[in-house]
Amino acid sequence: MKPVKMHEAKTNFSRLIALVESGEEVVVQRGDLPVARIVPYSEATERRAGALKGQITIGSDFKEIPEGFEDDLT
């Protein structure tokens, strides 16, 4: 969908929400500058410490400085 100006968004808010409910994304502009995006609501997933335990590995060379980067460390 093309961006909508602020006044149009205020005037047609219910229609825009219906579009969002059908899966579209609406960008609201103030003048020619995009200032907001209206997207379908989704429940935040719960973050839990240790949820990826055993699924991530760190290479044995993790702390090594790649060749050519030594000069950038000063």
TrEMBL record:
Function: Antitoxin component of a type II toxin-antitoxin (TA) system.
Protein name (record): Antitoxin
Pfam families: PhdYeFM_antitox
InterPro entries in the cross-refs: Antitoxin_Phd/YefM, YefM-like_sf
Family to which the UniProt record says this protein belongs: Belongs to the phD/YefM antitoxin family.
